[in-house]
Amino acid sequence: MKTIYLDCFAGISGNMFIGALLDAGVPLAHLEAELQKLPVANYKLIMERVSKCGIHACYFDVKVKQWFQPSRNLADILKILNESRLSDWVKDRSAKVFTCLAAAEAKVHGSTPDEVHFHEVGAVDAIVDVVGTMVGLEYLGIERVAASSLHVGSGFVKCSHGRMPVPAPATAEILKGVPFYFTEIKGELVTPTGAALTVTLAESFGTMPPGFKAERIAYGAGTMDLNIANVLRIYAGNSSAGRDHGDHCGVRIIETNIDDLNPQIYGYVMELLLQSGAMDVFYTPVMMKKNRPGTKVTVIANAANLDAVAAILFRETSTTGLRILPCECRHLQREIITVDTDWGAVRVKFARNGEQVLNAAPEYEDCRRLAQEHGIPLKIIQQQAMKQVALSMKFSG
Fold first, then answer.
1. Looking at the structure, do residues 255 and 219 belong to the same domain, yes or no?
2. Domain residue limits at 263
3. C-alpha angle with apex 19: 147 to 104, nearest 5 degrees?
4. For residue 177, pLDDT beyond 50
5. Same domain for 339 and 324?
6. pLDDT band at 160 (very low <50, low <70, confident <90, very high)
7. Fewer C-beta neighbours within 10 Å, C or N terminus of the chain?
8. What's this model's pTM, rounded to 2 decimal places?
């Protein structure tokens, strides 16, 4: 399974994350081409090679060509994402990051996520940072992200609401349940965007995942000059299929049984849970006490998202209690290849156990899009994609 480990010994920000991904092999031209699919303009991407305390790193920045930046709310940003021509994977992950940011800002300011008006994080550079990170992960085929404890720095930082303690209130809210630490180094080492990216993407925090083997080490530079290297170090490699214990990988199963909720609400709740960062949500018909038919709600989420999941279930459903269980995880190695059909490119997901391919499936969203664009039955596109996979495997063998 293609994995990256975020070594946040000097914190993390959006531009540091993208800088590290560029250093890991994402072409700047590819990043520029994908970002042009967003309906935003008047910015320029900067990439430079710099040295931070003797470490050669890639510095990435976004230069906005106009001084005025509109204040955007969550709906505005989701509209920008939905109107783009980016892949559904990039749209979905980016939306989860901004939903995480909106929830944190709302908690800090005593508002709701829909009412929050972003300032720094709603600007073009923040949108580019979030979407650009997802574009880079997609290009590298990253399937799993893990992270170290986060070094947040200390002191105060100036933002649109005035001088705030480090970590900034929104950052602190996002990092609930995530290990982080202070040092004497002054400055904001973890930004709200960096925190939201890490919490949304990372499956575990602490040491490297069991079985992980780094194949490349890359560095993304920050803007500060400190007495430590202001860089984000990422280890890119593979983690073998195997068993990860729940307490290490940080995965939890949250369950509750409900027999008195309007069925119309379940779909809405599922959308909210997935937007909050839940890995999976599903419903199971059950027979409850007094022979009442009910629904078992099951949510699979990272431990870092546990509070957000619980808050949604308590607020939006009629449950008064949750079961929270550690989850033992076992994963096959996964990779994605692209095959060409008569109607366009389709990504295909492979599941392997070592060198043995156990499953292959064409990406549904790619096939659906081509079916709609060309008026071809969905099953025909899926069949041709699998035929191309079979030919490719025969040729490579």
1. no
2. 247-330
3. 55
4. yes
5. no
6. low
7. C
8. 0.66
